[in-house]
């Protein structure tokens, strides 16, 4: 670890560290410190593997000469986060002869992290998974907290498991190769933390918007560490989403419905969450919980980050609402939303009338 690295500890029954810093994928000692046995299995996608997998494998082998390292690669993109890919990953892990003390390394964005984490959760009823996030979104959100899943045509993340990582090692130098669109997508989840629990963070993001978009190292490191600290605090208090963890779903009821209706080939997750947060803010206005001025501020910040803030045209409201009925927060009593009371304040609201949702989608 260098003096530039930051560590966020996640407490709880299965505690782990999130280590954040440049060049960590070359830190064989840090990577190898997470191993229980002599088997490592790297899961990545076909955009990330050519860029970074060899470095990880070499760093591990330099640190542990007796290590057996296998790997499997999936096609990049949300459309690959499927039961079929999950099956292929499991067969590859089986083919490598991984035992219970093997470790899966999830090298990539949230798609790889969610799928590899689910494979690790299922193989022999659970082996270790070390998250090596390479997108901003994965560094600030998906690598932390242990939600793993794949999508179905019927909805996002409908099949999965809670399986906390053994460690999260975020090499911020990998962001140098990240497409600008994916950087912006990650900023949507960063804004989410300000919106739900940290109003001053929204001011900070406003003040550092240009630096973040220009990939200024210090600004990015601060945004990542502050986001991880928020996520860590929430998931250590509520690892299985019985209560406050649901706040992390702000914007996701609308966002996931849009992703599903677009067949996982339209807006990416961060973009859908950006639109979803604005729609959730407008729903909150419609329910007299927040003001148009608050919505305008949130919308303006997301726009500064180059994110979409309006629902794509041509989507059918009935189809979107049907997807929302299968959202994991929905109950027999109806839809539950994360509603917004303004900057830094959100809560779960049950029994939201579908008519109010329909009004927001129509406006
Ligand atoms: N488990 C959770 O708590 C959680 C939280 C948030 C999001 N998610 C999930 O995460 C997924 C979205 O993750 P994402 O935004 O990282 O998308 P992603 O994994 O699809 O990555 C985006 C694109 O960037 C490429 N890429 C990744 N790292 C790169 C790098 N360093 N250089 C160049 N290209 C790179 C990928 O190959 C991909 O094409 C969604 O499936 C979402 O549901 C899960
Ligand atoms: O960690 C959580 O809890 C979240 O809700 C984080 C979200 O950003 C993430 O997209 C998550 O995968 C959504 O979870 P889901 O339970 O709605 O599928
Ligand atoms: Zn999300």
From TrEMBL:
It is found in: Cytoplasm. Its cofactor is Zn(2+); Co(2+); NAD(+). GO terms for biological process: amino acid biosynthetic process; aromatic amino acid family biosynthetic process; chorismate biosynthetic process. NAD(+) binds at residues 110-114, 134-135, 147, 156, 174-177. GO terms for cellular component: cytoplasm. Pathway: Metabolic intermediate biosynthesis; chorismate biosynthesis; chorismate from D-erythrose 4-phosphate and phosphoenolpyruvate: step 2/7. Belongs to the sugar phosphate cyclases superfamily. Dehydroquinate synthase family. Catalyzes the conversion of 3-deoxy-D-arabino-heptulosonate 7-phosphate (DAHP) to dehydroquinate (DHQ). This is 3-dehydroquinate synthase.
């Amino acid at each position: 670890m260098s003096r530039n690295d930051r560590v966020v500890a996640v407490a709880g029954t299965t505690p782990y560290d999130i280590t954040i810093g440049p060049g960590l994928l070359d830190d064989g000692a840090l990577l190898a410190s997470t191993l229980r046995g002599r088997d490592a299995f790297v899961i990545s996608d076909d955009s990330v593997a050519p860029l970074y997998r060899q470095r990880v494998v070499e760093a591990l082998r330099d640190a542990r000469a007796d290590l057996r390292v296998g790997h499997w690669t999936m096609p990049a993109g949300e459309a690959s986060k499927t039961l079929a890919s999950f099956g292929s990953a499991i067969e590859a892990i089986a083919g490598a002869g991984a035992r219970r003390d093997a470790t899966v390394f999830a090298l990539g964005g949230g798609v790889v992290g969610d799928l590899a984490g689910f494979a690790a959760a299922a193989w022999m009823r659970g082996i270790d998974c070390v998250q090596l996030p390479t997108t901003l979104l994965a560094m600030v959100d998906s690598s932390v907290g242990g939600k793993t899943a794949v999508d179905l045509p019927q909805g996002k993340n409908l099949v999965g498991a809670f399986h906390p990582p053994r460690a999260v090692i975020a090499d911020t130098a990998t962001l140098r190769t990240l497409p600008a669109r994916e950087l912006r997508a990650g900023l949507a989840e960063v804004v989410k933390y300000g919106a739900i629990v940290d109003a001053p963070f929204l001011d900070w993001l406003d003040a550092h918007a240009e630096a973040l978009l220009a990939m200024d190292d210090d600004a990015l490191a601060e945004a990542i560490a502050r986001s991880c600290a928020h996520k860590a605090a929430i998931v250590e208090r509520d690892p299985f989403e019985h209560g406050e963890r649901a706040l992390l779903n702000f914007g996701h009821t609308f966002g996931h419905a849009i992703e599903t209706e677009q067949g996982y080939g339209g807006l990416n997750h961060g973009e859908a969450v950006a639109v979803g947060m604005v729609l959730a803010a407008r729903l909150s206005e419609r329910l007299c919980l927040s003001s148009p001025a608050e919505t305008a501020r949130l919308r303006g910040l997301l726009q500064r980050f180059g994110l979409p803030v309006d629902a794509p045209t041509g989507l059918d409201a009935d189809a979107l609402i049907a997807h929302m009925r299968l959202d994991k927060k929905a109950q027999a009593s109806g839809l539950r939303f994360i509603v917004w009371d303004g900057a830094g304040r959100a809560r779960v609201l049950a029994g939201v009338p579908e008519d109010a949702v329909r009004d927001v989608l129509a406006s």
